[in-house]
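Collaborator request, handled under Task 6.
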Amino acid sequence: MRATIFEAPGTISVVERAVPPPGPGEVRLRVAAASLCASDVRVYRGEKYAKPGVVPGHEIAGVVDGVGEGVTGIDEGARVVICPIVACGQCRFCIVGRQNRCIARKTLGYDLDGGFAEQLLVPAEIVRVGHVLPVPSGLPMDIAALTEPAACVLNSLDLCALGTGSSVAIVGAGPMGLLHLLLARAAGVGPIIVSEPVAARRAIAQRWGADLVLDPATDDVAGAVKAATGGYGADAVVLTVGVHALVAPAIELVRRQGVINMFAGFPPHQTVPFDPNVIHYGEINLTGSQNATTDQYRRTLAMFAHVPHIDEVITNRYGIERAPEAYSSRLAMDGLKSLVEFPGVGGA
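Structure tokens returned to the collaborator:
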């Protein structure tokens, strides 16, 4: 089989590998599609760890083409998505259903082989904890490959306690900022305010239903957010770009007792100066979110049918031979989500 390999920061290659047979408790997939995450780009830049020689890709949809001994409830031919977390199942976080916070977690695409390959061996630990989820009938496999990033967004919205009639300010209209916009809109959140310096992305945010779109280079973002929320500030602010200099300005956008979620990952060893009294006297909840629970994956799969424009999030598509170009397009900010796909697998 052909597989993409992360060799070292700045070096991605495509090689031939043996097709792995499924062992006891394991499932093998024929990959239909796997999308590239901003975290993958951070690995490429050397800002985040991945094991040299690992197959990247943790946003995965595929078709089961092999079932190991002892596996029940998963049949060959099933269309599935993967929650890429290998969790221990025994720590305090796993016990309460938060495997994404497992103290011993490993992740496909970083510690173990991921989905940028023709086939993927799903570890028994992932199968055992229910991280192989069925794709609803009629959902295209390329959209199904967006389940992992969209579930991360749903986790963000849940953490911010955003529901019908809540206000949110989204800082950044890259792929993840725009996914926040789409899922928030589908959940009845509003007003939705987006701040983005790139004109093309502001235009997308406007077309996809943002109530107010701002250019931080020319607009008074804090003043506009307060004006749009009756003078209070947004119920929640989500920072979807990993630029540490944006944290302090984001604090100016939130109302008292509101939530600021640092959704994006940041380069290592960054520090952020801000006045702690703003947090103290405003009773502001400053938090972060990363990955999602199994139930949020399930809810995301059910939600996709009700999210307009979700298919437009994917703008760049590559066969396995061109998988390194997926990194190049993201580094150049060319389009939104990049997808490595295998047309025809599972209806992709």
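The cover message to the collaborator said: "The longest helix spans residues 147-159. The mean pLDDT is 95. Please let us know whether this matches your experimental observations."
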